[in-house]
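[agent] plan:
  1. take the single chain provided in the ticket
  2. run structure prediction with default settings
  3. attach structure tokens to the ticket
  4. add a short note for the reviewer (M.T.)
[agent] executing step 1
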Amino acid sequence: MEGIEKTFPGVKALKGVQLTLHAGEVLAVVGENGAGKSTLIKVLAGVHQPNAGTIAMAGEVRAFVDPIDAQKAGIAVIYQEFNLVPALTVRENIMLGHERTKGGFFSKKEERATVESLFRRMGVRLPAEAVCSTLSIAQQQLVEIAKALSLGARIIVMDEPSATLTNQEVEKLFAIIRDLQTQGIGIIYISHRLDEIFAIADRVMVLRDGDYIGDRAIGNVDRDALIEMMVGRALENEFPKAQTTIGEERLVVRDLQGYQTPHPVSFSIRRGEVVGLTGLVGAGRTEVARLIFGADPVAQGTLHLDGEPLKLRSPRDAIRKGICLLTEDRKAQGLVLGLSSRENFALGNLSHWSNGGFIDGKAERDQFRGYVDSLKIKLSHQDQLAKNLSGGNQQKVLIARWLESNSEVIIFDEPTRGIDVGAKYEIYLLMNKLAAQGKAILMISSELPEVLGMSDRILVMHEGRISGEITDVASATQEQIMALAVQ
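[agent] step 2 finished; step 3 output follows
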């Protein structure tokens, strides 16, 4: 790709970007949210038509008028949100659009043989007749890869492929990618997880604000240099944890258990403290957060906030008492994507600007403007739809909502998932600010460097119970946390 430019109304998304991919190579594409990564890939996939620039494959200049055209040329994109039909089987999804027929009838036997051959080629086992809605995220991803191979893809783009995978599933994905490389397939790998970039990529390319910044062989760049290329400045400390005065207990959880959780849990969070809650996927971390937030019914146990017993029958009760939850899935459970950024901020806070049953729109806008400035939320205007914001800015809108509701206990569930390194840094600074104000913060995270870098104290969960507590965080290691997570 040479000199690619793409303009949307009021925004120049790509400014003369170039990209080169070799057969059998893994090229990582990185950059902050809004850097132009998705737009560039959609140009390559025929979703967007560039305003300028050329695309050439094997020396032949190509112009893709739509995604089918790009697909026929051997380009497959596996988006973060999979393009599978949940009600169809694995076989039906893989063969969709190029079904095998005999005498005018579908040949399930021939299709099944094709699918099984694809899985053997990938070195995986998956039942061809399983319904896709019953598969795990990792298994659905395998179906997407097989689907790409069934179309004869020579280039496979993977957009945040590991966002919801466990460490073991990521290793399996990497093994498949390395095998695809030996078959001469070029891989474009988009991820915010820099550790993965250094583990799997041959070369890394950086975009910033729609500009091509450069590319480097992975052996010729270190983590700090890559971050500086991405954000345009050096980050002195990737995890800028500030020391705060930790006071008395604010939230006390005693023998708390839900109807769907196997064991009771007990812990406390003090004024100005950031408590990291970690463990393997499925350990029960989010379930604990939902119990505290009143989203799931409590079977037994007690909650106290500032010494006052809490009876929470719903999230509404929790919000009124000063407890908020930034959910793990901000798109499905935190935001109403079809509403504007301002309307999402206002949800739960409308009483702040209501008078006689009417909303004071000016007061609402003025208040939101203050948060846009203080949290550095990047949006074109207050009525910009939430679905069109970057992940980091979506997260900031949610944080603004909870700050406006005067929350005293803030639960961050995977606060930086799918967010670029620059936006992560700003979220960390905000955590410091909240802790300095005396808020009690529970940070649930699978990112062990993040847990070690931002926590005052660490709780580790294993199979629904708290298996250990680390108070000397400065001396703790990832290995120590993992030992508690798997015991």
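[agent] step 4 note for reviewer: The longest strand covers residues 249-258.
[agent] ticket updated
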